[in-house]
Amino acid sequence: MLSHHQIAAATRIGMLTRERDTAAACAEALHTLARALPQDAATVIGLDPLTGAHVQVAGIGYTPEISAALAAEFVETPWFRNVVTQPLPPSISEDSASDTAEERFRNGWFYAERVRPAGFRDGMTGALRHHGRYVGLVHLSTERAGAYDTEARHLLASVMPALAAIADPTAWTGELHELPGTAAAALATTDGVIDLPGRTRPRVLEDDAFRTLLRAFDTTHGERLRLLWPVGRDWCRVVLHRHGHGFGVLRQAVLVHETPTGLPYGLSPRELEVLTRAAMGQTNHAIAQGLFLSPRTVHSHVEHMLRKTGTASRAEATALAVRDGLLRPAPEDLAHFVERHPDGC
Question: Is 205 exposed, middle or buried (0-12, 13-18, 19+ CB in 10 A)?
C-alpha cells in the first residue's frame, strides 16, 4: 500500500508535466522521487531527437563519469534492450528467475566496471515513452542491496508516464509558442530539422531561399519574426521563434510555423515588396533602384498599397505592415524587423 509520502510525490511529479523548463522540471522530479523511493543517485536521460544520442537531462548523486556511462554506454548493452521490452522497470535485485547467470545484470561487465565500483548495490531503470514514442530513460541507484523490490518497481512505473512527458523535449512546443491548431511546424537547427508530434513539416523549409533567411535570423539573436512567404503558387504566413527550451541542440533551435493564406488586402507580390522596403524607411527613389523599377511605377504601387490597406499615409501603412507581419524581407534586411526582448538582449 502506498504511503502518504509516496502519493504526494507521485502527485507532485504529475504536476511538473506542465513546467516548460525541461531540465529544471526533471531535476525537481528526481528530488521529489527521492521522497518516495530509496536512492543515493538518480538521472533522467533524454533522447536527442536530431542525433538519436542519449544525453543527461538532469541528475543527482552520480559522478560525471557514471552519468556519461549511463547516457552513452548503457544503451549499447544487452540490459538496455531488456529495459525497453519489460512492462516493469527491471532492478538489479530482481533479475528474472528465468535469466541465466550470464544474462543477469549484476553478473555483467557494466555492473562490475561502472556501477559496483561507485558503491551502488541496487539499481532500477525504466524506459520513458510519451504518446508511444521512446524519449529516454530514468535510472535510480542506491548503496542498499535489495532495495528495489516489486513494489518499488510498480511505484516507479506509475510515475514514468509523467517523467516521460517532462523529458520529452518536443512535448509542449505548440503550447509554448501558442501555435494555431492547423499550423505546420518544426524545429530547425544548424544540423537539421526536428519534426513535431502531430504537426506536418512546413513547406517553406524545402525552399533554399527561405533557409538562407532562416540562417540570417539565427545570427540576429532576435526572438521572433513574422513575414509572408510564397510556396509554389500559394502564400503562407510564417513565424520564426527562438525556441530556447529543452536540452542540448534544442535550446538553439528556431521554431518555424506556417499557415496558408492569401496575400492580405489583395496586395500583389510587387506591392508587398514595396511595402516591405517602405517599412525599412526607404524613399521611393531608393525602392525604385533596389527593385529596378521607375520612380513613377513605385509611386503607383504606393498609391495602390494605401488604397488597398485603407491607410491614409505611408507611415500608417508601414506601421500596419510591421504590426501584422505584412513583410517579405530579404536576409540582409532582418535587423529592421526582428522582435527582441524588451531589455535588448
Answer: middle
CATH architecture label of 173-336: Orthogonal Bundle (1.10)
How far is the C-alpha of 283 from the C-alpha of 295, rounded, in Å?
10
> Taking the model in full, what pTM does it have?
0.75
> 4-167, superfamily in CATH?
GAF domain (3.30.450.40)
DSSP 81-95: HHHHH-SS--BGGG-
Across the beta sheet with 133-142, what order do the strands follow?
A: 54-60, 41-47, 133-142, 122-130
pLDDT exceeding 90 applies to what percent of the chain?
65
**DSSP assignment letter at 114:** I
Residue 123 region by backbone torsions, left for phi larger than 0, else alpha for psi between -120 and 50, else beta: beta
pLDDT of residue 95: 64
Give burial (CB, 10 Å; 0-12/13-18/19+) of 298. buried
Q: What is the pLDDT of residues 235-260, one digit of tens each?
A: 999 999 887 776 766 777 899 999 99
C-beta of residue 194 within 8 angstroms of C-beta of residue 201:
no
